[in-house]
């Protein structure tokens, strides 16, 4: 079975938007499709940051009335790849990492440390979805939640090695996305955005979960022109 172990686990890391993402705890391996939309999200966050912080070279202590606060949450963080990309490419943004599996906490922290990112702008919390963050609201929420239907066959390299907790999400693959949609109104700032990866075969159903909660939601394709992620706005 060793020959089917993903190369990323054998090597111990993968590249992701200019970072080296370590996989010590065997979280879900970041895919190139996720990297595709994470780069677009990073550009969106950077654009939003420029509106409140036009000069990235100005230090927070130079603001007489306090520094502007832009909060980004990497939900279902796994390795923390998406949040680390925001830390690297968006100066001054505050990035929060939420992950249910405590085994991945050290991996997230390692990825912040080894990539020489600003740990003073990062907060890592373990727990179920938004639970570790209380009533906190965010300007941007990024999530690559589990979305594979329980009955779907997967390649042995995925099925036998990658964590089922990060892959499977009930009979239709929407169990976690359904829960996110229900509580998102309490955690997304007005005018904020949530970017959520989803199963291509169930993208329309996933999108409908958010429109039912009175969000503006749209389906977007990846670099292979397959439905890949949702952008949800107030």
Describe the structure.
This protein has about 230 residues and is α/β, with parallel strands linked by helices. The model has no long low-confidence stretch (mean pLDDT about 95). Helix 2 (about 30-50) packs parallel to helix 3 (about 80-90). The protein has a single domain (about 1-55, about 65-234), classed as Vaccinia Virus protein VP39 (Rossmann fold, 3-Layer(aba) Sandwich). Strands 5-4-3-6-7-9-8 form a 7-stranded mixed beta sheet, sandwiched between helices. Strands 1-2 form a two-stranded antiparallel ribbon. The protein has 7 helices and 9 strands.
Given the structure, what is the number of helices?
Answer: 7
Distance between the termini: 47 Å
Mean pLDDT: 93
CATH class: Alpha Beta
For this structure, what is the CATH homologous superfamily? Vaccinia Virus protein VP39
Task: Give a summary of the structure in a few sentences.
The protein is an alpha/beta fold and 234 residues long. Helices cover 29% and strands 23% of the residues. The chain has helices at residues 7-11, 32-52, 81-89, 105-114, 156-159, 175-183, 203-211, and strands spanning 13-16, 19-22, 71-75, 94-99, 122-126, 138-143, 188-197, 216-221, 227-233.
Task: Give the SSE map.
Blueprint: H1 7-11, E1 13-16, E2 19-22, H2 32-52, E3 71-75, H3 81-89, E4 94-99, H4 105-114, E5 122-126, E6 138-143, H5 156-159, H6 175-183, E7 188-197, H7 203-211, E8 216-221, E9 227-233
Helix pairs in contact: 2-3
Q: Which key terms come to mind for this protein?
A:
single chain; 234 residues; alpha/beta; Rossmann fold; seven-stranded mixed beta sheet; two-stranded antiparallel ribbon; 7 helices
